Amino acid sequence: MVGIKTLVALSFLSALGITLLVLGCALPVYNNYWALFVLFFYLLSPIPSIVARRYTGEYDSASNAFTETCMFITTGLVISAFGLPFVLARTGTIQLGACALVMSANVVIFIAILLYFVLFSNEDFEYSVWI
Prior knowledge:
Layout: H1 4-26, H2 38-44, H3 46-56, H4 65-90, H5 96-119
């Protein structure tokens, strides 16, 4: 059973990722908030997985087209979240240090999202009721 300690650890990872993202935007050296558009990808990336789990049950060994499409959309959103800071740095909108902080925030946040889906995928009560 996954307990409250796991939920607190996931919250800590998420807070660390958001802190890195805000540092990449708000430090006086960078002082540019365009990188905050990555937050849209953080919010949108779990939605296809939640929809796929809701309408197909658990991820079975036999795949169907709906589950594969949802995983494709999720992969596209995650890759876009990693690509946006590079594009912003290449065009000169943000500096390379801010790009590095945003990329590290991406890694931390997406690890937290992945761990949530791995740890809470088989639980039928408590935390997974609201998905």
